[in-house]
Amino acid sequence: MAKPVHSDEVLKESSPEIVIINFYLNSLDTVKINEVYINVGKLRVLNGNERELREGDLVISLTDESETNTVKSIVENPLLKKVEYSNNTASGEIKSETLELQEVNFFIRTQYEFWFQKIKVERLEGNELKLLNVFPFFKPRIQ
User: Fold this and answer.
1) pLDDT, tens digit (0-9, with 9 covering 90-100), for 4-60
2) How many CB atoms lie under 10 A from the CB of residue 2?
3) Which of 20, 106, 124, 128 could be bridged to 78 by S-S, CB 3.0 to 4.6 A?
4) Secondary structure class of 66 (helix, strand, coil)
């Protein structure tokens, strides 16, 4: 006799998918989602975010409704842009500066999980995470 298959089991056994979320952020803490994509595939490194959080870094969490299941991505402060340049081509000296941007677009990628229902965006201020916004997650069609 065949074992009944639950819809969750079918979802888990289907092809792996990657979620790509494009965000907009400005210096007034406005966060918006520009677009969400899904493609078939598997990330080689799952959210390789092993470094310590620093002031201004973002923590983006994809969770279920109760937040018992969570996938987190750490984004280095996207409003700080590090640039390198050379003033004098003869000397070959390279200088480095950090620019503070007023607004920026950035993205994250993570492996899709069938239980994703919310996208939570927080920023580290002092020793605490400040909630910037919570968005509902709706799975888009595969592109």
Assistant:
1) 444 444 444 578 999 999 999 999 999 999 999 999 999 887 555 567 899 999 999
2) 4
3) 106
4) coil
Query: How far is Cα 40 from Cα 141, in angstroms, rounded to an integer?
Result: 11
| Position 128, amino acid | E
| 8 Å CB contact between 121 and 60 | yes
- Whether 5 is in a domain gets the answer no
Number of other CB atoms surrounding residue 93 within 10 Å: 10
CB atoms within 10 A of CB 120: 19
Nearby residues of 20 by Cβ (< 8 Å), 6 or more positions away: 36, 37, 38, 39, 107, 108, 109
Fill in the amino acid letter for 122: E
Partners of residue 98 on adjacent β-strands = 82
If you compute the radius of gyration of the chain from its CA atoms, what whole number of angstroms results?
Answer: 19
Residues of the domain holding 97: 13-136
Residue 47 falls inside a structural domain? yes
> What total number of domains does the chain contain?
1
